[in-house]
Amino acid sequence: MKRTDYAKIAPRYDDNEVRLRIRQDEILAEHLARVPRRPFGVLDLACGSGNYLAAQTKAFREQDIRWYGLDASEDMLALARTKNPGVELHRGRAEKLPFEAQQFDYVTVSFAFHHFEDKSTALDEMSRVLRDDGVARVVNIAPSEMRAWWVYRFFPEAFHEDEKRFWSHALLYYELSCRGFEPRARIEYDLYRIPLTEVLADVERRDMSQFAILTDAQYERGLAEVREALARDLRGYVDTEIALLGCTALKR
Q1: Which of 193, 162, 168 shows the shortest CA–CA distance to 247?
Q2: Fewest CB atoms less than 10 Å from the CB: which of 166, 169, 209, 224?
Q3: Which helix (H) or strand (E) holds 238?
Q4: Rounded CA separation 168/79 (Å)
Q5: b (16+ CB within 10 A) / e for 203-228
């Protein structure tokens, strides 16, 4: 499995404003209401530049919560620190978490589970650091359900790489069940139209891991196709789709 070098991506990672549009975590809100224990421990695993933590610490500022973040990239953590002065941030890998057993009530992984090299061990570690009745939350895209995504249309090699990187919702559900969790997986699908100008901007920024794992030749071929499509029709659009997997698992 190819790895993404976030030292190269970090300087432009937050230029994509979509990454800043993060709403209150409703699953976290539900779990907070159900569990009276305080302080409540939350770990954002593979926290990246800290956008999720910044949004949630603001949304839940009245709650007695201890916030933690962990990421393998020091460059991404440097960004996270500027946004999250009250959060305890650690550098490390999901396969060997630097935390005590049963330390957290909620562990979340947003759009990063595919980066874990040993996903089974990462799930073992998530289970270890979660308290009984804690919740694990995994959110990601579901490549098998979105073959018509514009990224795969212009960069077909990215789909085949993602087949190796991403677990299906059924496999994730099964692996969590094997560890004593009560999981529930849901896929939300959206079919929409996007301007080619936006597609080109995303491709030229090259801050998505799908682009980072391609060879330069593969990337340049796809970039040329996007530019050619836009040259044929400056007001052009492309039909695309996205499928988002949300898996919530209660530890028993």
Answers
A1: 168
A2: 224
A3: strand 237-251
A4: 31
A5: beeebbbbbbbbeeebbeebbeebee
Q: pLDDT (tens digit, 9 = 90+) per residue, 156-182?
A: 999 999 999 999 999 999 999 999 999
Residues 6+ apart with CB under 8 A from 36: none
Domain of residue 106, CATH code = 3.40.50.150
Neighbouring C-beta atoms of residue 245, cutoff 10 Å:
23
d(C-alpha 247, C-alpha 142), whole Å:
11
Unique residue bearing structure tokens 């919530």: 248
CB distance 216 to 157 below 8 Å: no
pTM beyond 0.70: yes
State how many domains the chain has: 1
Calculate the average pLDDT of the chain. 96
For residue 247, the cross-strand partners are: 138, 185
Instruction: Give the chain's count of helices (H) and strands (E).
Output: 11, 7
In a domain, 214, yes or no: no
Give me the domain span that covers residue 37: 6-144+163-189+242-251
pLDDT at position 11: 87
